[in-house]
Amino acid sequence: MYHEEIKNYIKEWITKNWSLYYNINKIDVTIEKISIKEAKVDCIAQVSINKVLKAKSVGELPYIKGILKKINIADYERKLAN
Fold it and tell me: Which residue intervals of the chain are DSSP H helices?
């Protein structure tokens, strides 16, 4: 009944929240269990994602940038190459 709507919601959520950092090649969603009570829908879904990290190097990862900024290392890539 709500299977396709739930699948689309999950795919859109993943795309919206992950596409900044990943190229998402494929998302497969399988609904395992669904129950509807009054105005509440509970669902268990199996999700498989094929994705590739957009960063070309470790220094481009947002959390690494934050760590390096916190410890005052601005030229990590150059130091790593030496």
Answer: 3-18, 62-70, 76-81
